[in-house]
Specification:
3 helices, mainly alpha
């Protein structure tokens, strides 16, 4: 049980690191209108990535920690 809890905590920390990096990127590129369509599309794509990262489960269907969660979440950052 303790090993499982540690694995979930590790996953949560890895997702947190990716989320913080994504938020930093979002803050750098955010725009307040669509006067620059490319910048607006980039912002929307990064916003969708944030949602996908937040929706990433920490546990699989068997109740075990998801393997390689950091790499799965970092994959959402490819824009």
């Amino acid at each position: 049980m303790e090993v499982g809890v540690k694995a979930v905590m590790t996953n949560a920390l890895e997702v947190q690191m990716v989320l913080l990096e994504t938020v930093k990127r979002f803050e750098k590129i955010k725009v307040y209108d669509n006067s620059d369509p490319v910048a607006f599309q980039t912002m929307l794509a990064l916003g969708k990535s944030l949602k996908n990262i937040l929706d990433q489960p920490l546990l699989n269907n068997e109740g075990e920690a998801v393997q390689n969660i950091r790499y799965k979440c970092e994959g959402y950052l490819e824009i």
